[in-house]
Each structure stands twice: as structure tokens, then as C-alpha cells.
Amino acid sequence: MPTDLFLRNIASSLGGAGQFSMGQRRGRTVTTAVTTPTVGGTNIQVTATAGGQALTFFSEPLTEGVTISGTITPNLRGLESANTVNAGFAVLIERADNAGVALQTLVTRQIVGAELGTAEAARTTSLTPTSRTFSAGDRIRLTVSLINVGTMAGGSVTMHYNGAAAAASGDNYIRFTETFVTDDIQDVSPFEIKGSNAYYG
Description:
Layout lengths: L2 E9 L7 E5 L7 E5 L8 E2 L10 E4 L6 E3 L3 E9 L6 E10 L5 E11 L8 E4 L7 E3 L4 E10 L8 E5 L11 E4 L25
Parallel strand pairs: 2-5
Antiparallel strand pairs: 1-2, 1-14, 3-13, 4-12, 5-12, 6-11, 7-10, 7-13, 7-14, 8-9, 8-12
């Protein structure tokens, strides 16, 4: 069964500046990350606000070892301020240790789909990783950046993430072929807690 890691607007347990979580549960409220492209740019890491803190997304530690070798499918949603910006999203996916330090490259930086448009929409692609064996306690590290599609120009690019519903605004995730579990702390509402003697509405 595939495993989805959703880009969240909550801090990673690593606690560093710009280190956000990739969780196994969708978010609740769409968040935007606004990045300023540069004229002629080719590789600009996504930022929380225009000219602000660069963002990197981390899974929580894996509960057990797994070898990741199957197709990886990123699904990223966003827009550019004008068609002349000529920007798209790219991803770099790495194996990291428990402290978040990159150990091996799983997927080298690659573009995700086509150039962005001026209305929020999904961009996706299928990526073939280099087979990597993760140990219990390792993390998956994701860097999202802007890539030029033609010659990049000025303007802005907005990534929408932390969405609550599939195929809707902010539904950003990375899908792995393999089944694995992380030490993710789930932020569930009381009405979603179910048990043999529990009430749920």
C-alpha cells in the first residue's frame, strides 16, 4: 500500500528555523508559501514569505527500516503571478538521519510537471529514485524549489499546502510506493477518536 506524506504548516520535531513537518495526515487550513523569483534564476528554495525564511520539510523518524526503490509521485499545488514568470516547482528528496542531516540522495532535483499557471492548480510527475535503505530513526527530507521553465523573470510564486481535502486547494503530498510508518503525532479531533467504548460523532 502506498504511503503519502503531506506537507504541513507545523514545525518539525527537529525544531530548526524553516524546518516543517511532512505528516501522514492532511492539514486543516490551507497555508501559502510565497517565493520571489529572480531574473534568470534557476534554483530558488521555496520561502515562507516573499524574501523570508527558506523551508525544508521532514518526515518524523521512521519506526522501522525500509528500502525505498519504487516510483515516487509528488503532487504540488501553486501558481505564478504572471505567465511571464516562467517558473515551476522542483523537488530534491533525501535520506536524512534523526537529526535531519542529509545522508544520501533519493531523488536528485527534478521538475514537477509543467510551468505553473496564474490560477492554483496541481503539478505532478513520476520519479524513479536511487534505491536507498532507511534505518529505523531515519527521516525523509524534502526541499521544494523554483525551477526555470524558459527564462525566469520577476514576480512571485505561491505554493499552497496544508490542505484538508484530496484534489483541492493545498493538497500537497509526496507518494511513495512502499508502505512505512513514522513517529508522527496525529492532531486528531475528539470526534475522530474511536474505540470499543468510545463515543464518536
